[in-house]
Design a protein that fits this description.
Chain B: It holds the Pfam family NrfD. The complex is a heterodimer of chains A (197) and B (478). Chain A has 197 residues and is α+β, with helices and mostly antiparallel strands. Chain A has helices at 14-27, 43-46, 54-80, 93-120, 152-162, 187-191, and strands spanning 3-11, 30-35, 126-128, 140-145, 165-173, 176-178. Chain A has 2 domains: 3-51 and 125-190, Alpha-Beta Plaits (2-Layer Sandwich), CATH 3.30.70; 54-120, no CATH class. In chain A, strands 2-4-1-5 form a 4-stranded antiparallel beta sheet, covered by helices on one side. Chain A has a two-stranded antiparallel ribbon with strand order 3-6. In chain A, α3 packs antiparallel against α4 (93-120). Chain B has a single domain (20-144, 158-449), classed as Formate dehydrogenase/DMSO reductase fold (Up-down Bundle). In chain B, 71% of the residues lie in helices and 0% in strands. Chain B is globular and about 80 Å long. The chains are: A alpha+beta (197), B mainly alpha (478). Chains A and B meet through α1, β2, α3, α4 and β3 of A and α1, α5, α6, α7 and α15 of B.
Chain lengths: 197, 478
């Protein structure tokens, strides 16, 4: 990612936030993101985000688990070491169901959580720019990216009119880096010249 | 204004006048303050118990499994009783977090975090018993199907004991993932308001760099929903498989098809009782009465009286089948050695605690009484412990050969081991209550405007209007 310039505005109420999102989109500004302290239902649609495909990934992981369990147990009992256990069949499908089920769930859950972390680019030690410390508390923080075509002052007054407060301009790394939250250590901020400075 | 709002007839889930910031303050500030005296007292008692448990386990490993009072007739005693009991307790946490999420039960938001923590700690305690019971615990890895140099000789995939290995380990992993994925945003909340450097750093690591981006929340919601969908059959499968440990054998009193539903109902029954025990203390000490309300306790007491009655029906069905099935061994097990005989007292403790006393919860006054709920939650757990004891020991101590009939009482390392798991459980719970948000902050915020007391009062205007007008107004709001 890169260092970019942003205009940041705070909203107190979802009822004000939703129309503001609509206005920003129709005005054609580049909406970087809206940070919220909890999942606000419908905000993803209002922002025009597409549905998450995490479910599909989960299904694929699940059937991988099913296949792994069934094929591994059958291979062990029929090919690798066919053992006579009390005269029971070598392919006792009903007896395989519990482990098959457990592995399906395990693969799906572990795979999905890892995919979730990968997609959101989160893991221990990862740091990202926090636009406002209360974006995880009670404020809805709207961040608009400044491009060559946008005028910062114009965006500010636009946000003001849309009901935002504490509007400010920030230069920040848009991606993630390895860092500590108790230190101001945005690394690229010091080394790289901002793209649109 | 949302199209969906909750009827004012429903009790608010959050009492008092709250806004989003107040919710954060109420739940996070105990983490930032020094713990009280009671916390230290409780924590050190738990640590002492844990220490005694570790010593008992050391004793057993050093001298061998013979220091336990198990014998050739009674091969499973307190250890497996405690294992089933702890696993059962864990089930309520998953039920609250997963099944109630799918059923869209709003009240779960107040209690799910603590209940899931309870699940994880309870499964940790449970897992120890079968492992230590093996005797040579350093061989415990033999239960895993790994490529070895002895053939390789694989584990027996037909055995319910092996199914248990897979079930319990999967259950633990999935519960942990579910719990932690819910904790990430709340850790970020603690991080962003932290005043000290150390707290900011540590919660920064724990929060994985969460920012609260809308896209991330969308994925988070999708993840929670699918994990809930996966955990729901999982939780039912786990105790079903635990019951298979018994049901697939040919011991009278174990060999019954009723076991899976009966065990699952019993697990939920005891688990909800444990949630009540823990939350009544937690809400008092951390002053969270406005979030874990009497309404929450009433909802759980309703589940307790339902599952308690299911369990009671199962007991009666077993007795009926023992008579109707016309198997003399089964008849004797139930009517001569379980309901009567030297261990008969345990059967009647079980009956009293699980079937008779929970009936007080048919009365609304009793369901909403904190003291009654607390006492009942302990009685239920005593009863459910005895249920497992009765199933295991009273089926074993009178077997097919009268010359091997035996009696069983635990030795001190068995009791010490059990006490040690209490130590482990409560040590973990005390640390959790101090360092983790005991209530899901983000989830409370997302139900606050539909179910908070001060927001519900504003809804009375809309209750007066017709549904069509309300829907029309919402559609044309912006």
């Amino acid at each position: 990612m890169a260092v970019k310039n942003f205009v940041v505005g705070l909203f107190d109420d979802e009822a004000v936030l939703f129309p503001a999102v609509k206005k920003v989109r129709t005005a054609g500004y580049k909406l970087h993101d809206v940070y919220t302290p909890f999942p606000v239902h419908g905000l993803d649609h209002a922002m025009g985000l597409r549905e998450s495909s995490l479910h599909t990934a989960g299904f694929i992981y699940g059937i991988t688990g099913t296949t792994t369990a069934l094929s591994f147990m059958s291979w062990v009992f029929n090919v690798d070491w066919p053992l006579n256990i009390g005269g029971k069949p070598h392919f006792p499908l009903p007896a395989f169901i519990p482990i098959t089920f457990e592995l399906t769930v395990l693969f799906a859950a572990v795979g999905m959580v890892m995919t979730f972390c990968w997609l959101c680019q989160i893991m221990p030690g990862v740091k990202k720019h926090i636009f406002h410390p209360r974006q995880t508390d009670d404020k809805f923080v709207m961040v608009i990216e400044l491009t060559e075509k946008t005028n910062a002052e114009e965006v500010k007054s636009f946000l003001q009119a849309a009901g935002a407060h504490d509007i400010n301009e920030q230069q920040a790394e848009a991606g993630w880096w390895f860092g500590r939250f108790d230190k101001d250590d945005e690394p690229y901020l010091r080394k790289v010249k901002p793209v649109n400075a | 204004m949302h199209l969906k709002y909750e009827s004012t007839l429903r009790e608010p889930l959050v009492d008092g006048v709250k806004d989003y910031h107040q919710v954060t303050e109420d739940i996070i500030s105990p983490i930032e303050a020094k713990p009280g005296k009671l916390w230290y007292v409780g924590f050190f008692i738990s640590l002492a118990l844990l220490g005694f448990g570790a010593f008992s386990v050391f004793w057993q490993i050093y001298f061998g499994v013979g220091v336990w009072n198990l014998n050739k007739t009674i091969g499973w005693g307190w250890d497996i009783t405690n294992f089933v009991w702890w696993v059962g307790i864990g089930h309520a946490g998953t039920l609250i977090s997963a099944i109630l999420l799918l059923f869209r039960q709003g009240w779960r938001t107040g209690v799910n975090r603590a209940a899931e923590a309870m699940t994880i700690f309870a499964v940790m305690c449970a897992g120890q018993f079968p492992i230590i019971h093996m005797g040579r615990v350093w061989m415990a890895f033999f239960i895993l199907p790994y490529p070895n140099t002895r053939g390789p000789v694989w584990v027996n995939f037909n055995s319910p004991l092996l199914w248990d290995v897979f079930a319990i380990s999967t259950y633990f992993t999935v519960s942990l993932l579910f719990w932690y994925s819910g904790l990430i945003p709340d850790f970020a909340t603690i991080r962003d308001r932290a005043k000290t450097k150390l707290r900011k750093h540590l919660y920064g690591i724990a929060s994985f760099g969460w920012t609260g981006s809308t896209k991330h929340w969308q994925r988070h919601e999708a993840l929670s929903l699918v994990l809930a969908g996966l955990s729901t059959p999982l939780v039912l499968s786990v105790h079903t498989i635990v019951s298979f440990d018994f049901a697939t054998s040919v011991i009278p009193g174990w060999h019954t098809t009723i076991f899976p539903p009966y065990f699952v109902a019993g697990a939920i029954f005891s688990g909800f009782a444990m949630v009540n025990t823990l939350l009544i203390i937690t809400r008092k000490i951390l002053k969270l009465e406005e979030y874990i309300t009497i309404g929450h306790m009433e909802a759980m007491n309703k589940v307790i009286v339902l599952t308690g009655s299911v369990v009671g029906c199962a007991y009666l069905t077993e007795l009926f089948m023992a008579w109707y099935g016309a198997n003399p061994y089964e008849f004797d097990t139930f009517f001569k050695y379980r309901a009567a005989g030297p261990l008969g007292w345990s059967y009647w403790i079980m009956m009293t605690c699980n079937v008779i006393t929970p009936q007080v919860f048919w009365f609304r006054k009793m369901r909403r009484n904190v003291m009654v709920t607390f006492v009942m939650s302990i009685i239920v757990n005593i009863g459910m412990w005895f249920e497992r004891f009765v199933i295991i020991c009273t089926s074993l101590y009178r077997d097919y050969l009268p010359s091997s009939w035996s009696y069983y009482r635990p030795s001190w390392p068995e009791v010490g081991f059990y006490m040690g798991t209490f130590g482990l459980f409560f040590t973990c719970f005390f640390l959790f209550a101090k360092y983790f948000p005991v209530i899901a902050v983000a989830e409370i915020k997302s139900v606050l405007k539909t179910s908070g007391e001060n927001f519900k009062e504003k809804m009375e205007v809309y209750e007066e209007e017709s549904a069509e007008k309300f829907a029309h107004d919402v559609a044309h709001a912006h």
